[in-house]
Structures are given as C-alpha cells and as structure tokens.
Amino acid sequence: MRFLLAPRGRGVGPNRRTREADVAEKNAGGTVGAAGRALAADRADAIRNVVLVGHSGAGKTTLVEHLLAATGTVQRPGRVEDGNTVSDFDEVEVRQQRSVNLAVAPLTYGGVKINLLDTPGYADFVGDLRAGLRAADAALFVVSACEGVDGLTQMLWEECAQVGMPRAVVITKLDHQRANFEEVLVTCQDVFGDGVAPLYLPVITNGHVNGLIGLLSQKFYNYASGDRAEKDPGAEYAAQIETYRGDLIEGIIQESEDESLMERYLAGEPIDGIMLIEDLEKAVARGSFYPVLCTGSGVGATEVLELITQGFPSPLEHCQHEVSDLSGKPVQDIACDPEGPLLAEVVKTTSDPYVGRISLVRVFSGTLRPDMTVHVSGHGLAERGHEDHDVDERIGTLSCPLGKQQRTTPKAIAGDIVAVAKLSRAETGDTLSDVERPLCMTAWSMPEPLLPVAIRARSKADEDKLSQALARLVAEDPTLRLENNAETRQLVLWCMGEAHTDVVLDRLAKRHGVEVERIELRVPLRETFGGKCQAMGRNVKQTGGHGQYAICHIEVEPLPSGSGFEFVDKIVGGVVPRQFIPSVEKGVRAQMERGVVAGYPMVDLRVTLYDGKAHPVDSSDMAFQIAGQLALKEAASKVPTLLLEPVDELSVLVADDYVGSVMSDLSSRRGRVLGTEPVGTGRTLVKAEVPELEITRYAIDLRSMSHGTGTFHRSFLRYEPLPPNLASKVTAAD
C-alpha cells in the first residue's frame, strides 16, 4: 500500500499500476475511467466489488462522488442537496435527498476496475442493501463523525462477520462543526469489536481537514493546496502518532501468521515495514482486521482507493454461494473462471419506460455476452409471490451502468457486474446459467415485509392497469408482497415500512401511470355462536306453478376453538327425504360463509338436523338449501353471536436496552407476554401472543421504540372472542 510505505500491493499481478501511471495517462490526453465509455475488465483479479454500507445521511453517496472525481470518471463531485449525484438519479431520491435504490458506480484505479455499490441507509430499503451485499466481495462501512453508529449498521456488521466478508471503516464528515474523530473511533471499536484500528489521523484546523498523517509511514499528507504534498508531521503530533501507531502495529502482529513476530516486537526488535504491510493486507482480505480511514473536505479519496485495490480481495478470493442443479443436487465444481460454465445472478431488476426491464447481474463464473441464450431459473421465493420458474431467454445488450447512464460493453467476465436488457422473465434473485447445464443459486435471506397497506384504484382506467403494474413492482422488489385477500376483498401490499410504501405508490403513479389510494385495512374476523339453541327454517312459497316447500329443524352449538364445522344427521322416519339432507348442509355452509351479524365467516359450530317436512311436488334441492340458511339466521337471533379476532404469535428480537419498553407496549396492545430468552450478546427474544388488530402497524412502532434495531416475526395462532366494546364498534361499522 503506497499510502502506508511503498507503491506495492497484493493480488493484482502485472496489471498493478502506481498513481504516477494514472497521472501519466491523464497527461497523455486520457482519463482514468472516463465517462462515455464502458469500463471493461479482462481478468477477475483486476476487479473489486465493494458495497458501501451505513445509516442514512452518513455520507455514502458523497463518498462515491469523491471517488469518481478522484479517478476522473466525473469532472466534479455532485451534491446530494443539489440532486446531481451519480448514484441518486431516481426522481424519488432527488426529491427526498436520500438513496432508496441500489446503484452501481464503476471506476478504474491503478489498472483495477472497482464496482462501487451504493446502498440505501434507511431500514425500509433493506432489500436493495441485501442485494448489494450479495453482489460484493468486500464492504466499506461509512460512519459519520458527528452521528456515530446506529443499530442497523451494527446489525449489518454482524451479518458480514457471519459470512466472513472483508470490511473497512470510513469516517466521513470530519469537516462538520460537530465532528469528533476520537469519539467516533472509540464508538466503532466498542461496537464493531476487536481488529478495528485507524491507518491515518486527520489533521483538522479551524474545522477544515488539511490532510492525513499515515501511522505506518509517519508522514503528513498535506492537501491544503489541493494536491497531495508529503511532509513531516511535526513534533506536536508525536505523542498522538506514537499511541495510535503502537496500537495499529500490535493489531497487525496479532493477525500475522508469523508467530515469532510478536516475540520480536515485544523484545524491542524493529519490524520490517514491508512485512507489516503484507500481514495487514492478508488480514484485511480474510476479514479479520478492519482498517479505519477518514475523509472530509475532499481529503482521503486516494487513500480509500488504494485500500480497495490493494487490501480488498478480488472475486477470485470470494467464497462461492451454494449452487445446485435443477433437481436440487449440490454442484461443487464452480469457480470464478471466465472460461468456466456460466453462473450469474440477478441482484436487482428495474423497469425503464423506454428500454423496458433492465437486470443488474453479478457474474460468478463464465462470460456473459450480448445476444446469447441463457437459462433463467428462480426458486425458493414462492411465498413472496415469485412462483418457481425455469425458462430459456435470449439476452439483449450488455451495459456498464454509471448512474442513469448505460454504456455498452462487449462482455462481462466472471467477477464483474453488468446490466442486461430484455430479460423479460428474470426477477430479482434469479440465476442465469448455460442452457446445456442449468444451475440454481440458493436464494439469499430477505426480511419478511410486515406492514400491510390496503389500496384501491382511483378510477376504472387505473384499475385496468393496476394488476400489470403491481406484478412488475413485485418482480423487481423481493421485499414487496402482494395479497389479494378473498375474505376482506381488499388488495393488500405488504411493505417494509412507511417510507417503502411511499416509494412503491410513487412508482405506481410516476413510472406506470396508475393512481391508487389507501383505504382502511380490514382484519379478517370470524363469527360463532355464544350458546346452544334450536331453530327452524321455513321456506314455503306458492307461486301458481311449482312452489317451494322445505322445513327443517336444527340444533346449533358452539365447538372449541379450531374445531371447524360439524354437521350431524339425526333424521328418522324420512321426514326429510335422504336426497335433501345434503341440501340442508349446503345451505347452512353457504350462510356460514356469509356470516349472520357482521358479514364474517362462521366457525367452530356443530349443526344437527333432527326434524323437518317435505312436499312430494314442491320440495327441491334449492328449497332445502334456503331452509337451511333461514334456520341458521333464526338461531343467531336466539343466542349471542360472538365476533372472533385472529391472534398471532409474536417473536420480537430487540436489544436488551429496549426489552422493558417492548414488553410494556405489547401489554398495552392486549398482548400476553409468554417469556424472554437471551440471543447472542446484548439481545433478547421476547415471545408474546397479540391480537392481529393491534399489530397492523407494529413494524413502524417497533422501529421507533428500538431505534431501528428491533425485528419481529409473526405467525397465526388461533381465533379468540373480541372484547364486547370492540365487537360493538365493528358491528356498527359494518
């Protein structure tokens, strides 16, 4: 790493170039990664796929802009406030001044193609964030110097740790008036754990970042003039450098594979700087050491780029995901080889009104070329509305996306990320493979959408287009689920949160021209009888020709919860002919489906047919069906009819600090807390039974209570009687 000691590095081979080579290319009339032409990679070891992770407002998009400008990919960095950044080009992002989509920004530095994956920082858009993690080989955790680390960032750090993803921390906004480098560094070390150490110290004068001090090189890189100038740091920084440098060296040595290095260091022997750099690079690449860099006032972009190209692993070092054939048999011989069998994954799909569907694809093996035919396979997301499918498709053009620009590229080799046009059947999470050897990658983990929102079209014209528009949105977003509830006759969107809902409805209106409005969500209730009674259904009509004649006597009694419906035949002597007994049952079942009080289905009943009368001419199947319906209605007038509400089993995972608040809140929702159990370090799982009526907006409320760190899972448990005061309100409303 040149920024540490010398212009050398790891894992890039003969394609390695120094910063001086980049400058020479610029002076020769070219620009490194110039806009207008696609960046092509010929070798997997000359590619880096890096995802930027951090809470909303941490500065991820701004960092991308400075990295693009530092390599000449753009002439000058854009500003989120001005709506002219490369990553946030969607009109929703421009209007809200925050990222809501995964965006790719490729650039080249030192002969290496870097695919920067800018992700949303708001919890509602975790689907795009997870897509970025899936496509990346390493992660930059962006932390604001004035806001610190939030709960979501901590959870994502732990998620990356579980899969061994290499990580580094970039502290941004050091030029902010509330910035405190030392404080946020301590926070990162406390939250992220061991192995977090700075490579630089910022030099800040009057709120302006003048430069950086390299802790290994012990040099001051002064940016006061705009260009980087190397100087001695001065005696005033000696004590600070010694403290942080000692911690850094000890951290590197602890990760070294040379066990004698620590003994030599403790004995006071000088440690070769080149050896320290090699050990640092290895530790970063295997995900056991996490360097901290810092940026502000245009300072630090070069250092971040050098860390990415020399410290982060190439796709060759990426651990492959689980792969199987279409029969489910595991496949083990897939490697990151451009000459190998094709294996790629759709990490994101978007619908462009002019181009059509565009799929962002990460290639794991083989080479993708325009106009080739591929096998598209999607499995494991049926519960999200994505039916399993296998189909052959011919892809269109390949392009290298830079924000809203699509720059044509001739191919995409293993390890690269590319945009593919005209994959009409491909959805987010689908696998692309050779037609002769179809493969399927294991679907990645996605959180369940838990905020239900009922909608309806505003006009008949909107209603005609709504179904197709929603199908496209669901295909693009695996965190969006569509439900057409047959009981409540409502169209329900299951979203991640309020912000997610707003973006979905905005896309319906702006992208697909479909206007919808929200309506009050109806929870599917049930009805049952509160006691035992007898009733008669009399259907006797004479109309001048064939009349209707059917009389039935039934006894109705409630059954225990979950018992369903039971029909008992106790007719003797043929008072109701045998062929009409099923007709009475059919009529009773039909009336149960419609309900007798509030229009909700009836459950948990035993109906006994014990007497009746028939006419040899006027009795018929339909006559006895109507008699059965009338009998059930009469029974409802004799005993109380209860409304039943669904009760869910709730499992809430929350930080220990918020357990008390969560339990109190659940109790206020008529919930019964069953118990708690510790999960890992610092978290608790709270289990409770809560009526579904009380948790329709729990996704929003829990996020507020837990500051974005809480998650929950719900599953239907049983039906229970609705309290009389609430039941009267429901009955009056219906």
From TrEMBL:
Pfam annotation, one family: EF-G_D2
Entry keyword annotation includes Nucleotide-binding: yes
Region (Disordered): 1-20
Gene Ontology MF: a single term: GTP binding
Domain Tr-type G residue range list: 45-316
Signal peptide from the UniProt entry: none
This protein's name: Elongation factor G-like protein
Biological process terms in GO annotation: ribosome disassembly
Domain of life: Bacteria
Keyword Protein biosynthesis on entry: yes
PROSITE patterns with a match to the protein in the record: G_TR_2
Keywords of the record: Elongation factor, GTP-binding, Nucleotide-binding, Protein biosynthesis
